[in-house]
Amino acid sequence: MYVRYMTWRAAALEAPKKGGGRPGRSRTRVLVIRTDWNGIGTGHIGPTVAEWLMFAMVSNRVLFIDERAAWNYQEYFQGMAYHILLATSRDAT
């Protein structure tokens, strides 16, 4: 489902560039989340982003997260992916 959303998102962002829709207007609906994650611990960021992503997918909106914090939430997910891969490789040996 995520791959379908990302494919749709890429197409939706390209359509206005190709002249689709009314002049000066895009038919693409956009959801922008502005956050500094104040009061949300790193353990809750993943589920929170997942909920916003699911809402965007169900409502056919392109999701952008406007990160206002001193650190980027994507670094958290990259770190988690590294730990998952590390744990998987240890279990495999």
Provide the descriptors you would attach to this structure in a database record.
single chain; 93 residues; alpha+beta; two-stranded parallel sheet; 3 helices; 54% helix
Give a description of the structure.
The protein has helices at about 1-15, 40-60, 75-90; strands spanning about 30-35, 60-65. Helix 2 (about 40-60) links the parallel strand 1 and strand 2 (about 60-65). The chain has one domain (about 1-90). The protein is globular and about 40 Å long. The chain is built from 3 helices and 2 strands. It has about 90 residues and is an alpha+beta fold. It has a two-stranded parallel sheet.
What is the approximate shape?
globular
SSE series: HEHEH
SS field, number of helical segments = 3
Helix-strand makeup class = alpha+beta
Helix content: 40-55%
Ranges where pLDDT stays below 50 over 5 or more residues in a row are none
- What does the main sheet amount to? 2 strands, parallel
SSE layout and pairings?
Blueprint: H1 2-14, E1 30-35, H2 42-58, E2 62-67, H3 73-92
Parallel strand pairs: 1-2
Outline of the structure:
This protein has 93 residues and is α+β, with helices and mostly antiparallel strands.
